[in-house]
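Regression report. Comparing outputs from two consecutive submissions.

Submission 1:
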Amino acid sequence: MSVLRLELVAGGPKMQTLESGYAAPNSPMSDNDTLRFTGPMSAHQLAASLTRYAGKPVIDATGLDGFFKIDLAFAAEGSMSSMESTAPPLSDAIKALGLKLTPTK
């Protein structure tokens, strides 16, 4: 089965660590053709939430524990709106957090 691994880029995460987070991350907000995840969440919660928009299951392979301040804006890949959005695709936007999505089986 094809999946995407959520992994750290060289240099590590670029997210602020937080003392606590929500039991479930915020639902993405939609601003025109852009989706935005905000709020405290774990890397595992982020991976699970991104599965809906990545086109394949996203598995947390970061090894990160705890909660992080997430602010991630992207155009949903494969959608008609992604062609009109000024936001980058998910695979590019995730790099701002010090993360990457790697295809694997």
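Submission 2:
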Amino acid sequence: MNTVVDTSFRRAMAPSRAEIAALDLSANSKIVQQLLGGTSAERRRSALDIGCGNGKFTRLLASLFRSVAGIDVKARKIEEAQQAARDAGLAIDFRTASADAIPFPDASFDVVAFSNSLHHMPDPRRALAEAARVLRPGGWLYVMEPVPAGNYHDAISLVNDETPVRTEAYRQVTRLEGFTALQEILYRSHRTFASVDEWLAGQ
């Protein structure tokens, strides 16, 4: 890792509606395939998913890396993730743990990922520092975060305004030292819910 600053790295946190409308329609699963799926075999050895929840994204990583682990502070979510991995025939190391104290030695992973989870961390700066600790030299940090803009954000803000935590998470990523910003992709995505109750349960 080095300290080169990529001046093309986008800083804007709140694209306008016109900018959002002009973005390509995509999904996290497609973006991670694009960014990590083409990496060399040497870089595909191991990955860690921080704040993995029920393990949906971790299972995607398992299709790209030989060894995958996931951590989350909620034991119930880890149990769900473990069961889903077993059902899929995947050997994933799921653990109940905090991003503030990742239960792995220094330089354990080639890729560390936060998939829609960094803004949920009580201390994003500490979580990123721990991610850097467990990354091998030359490792890649993948952060997928929703920006506080767009129709979905406007809707959830009625019950849970995440603008401050999303902004702080983004700010901490842009302040990372010892990393080179390789690429940032902004895209639109669709989310659908079967009912209002399902929507509220996801907040």
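Expected: both submissions complete independently.
Actual: both completed, but the second showed a warning that disappeared on reload.
Relevant detail on submission 2: The beta strands are 46-50, 67-72, 93-96, 109-115, 135-144.
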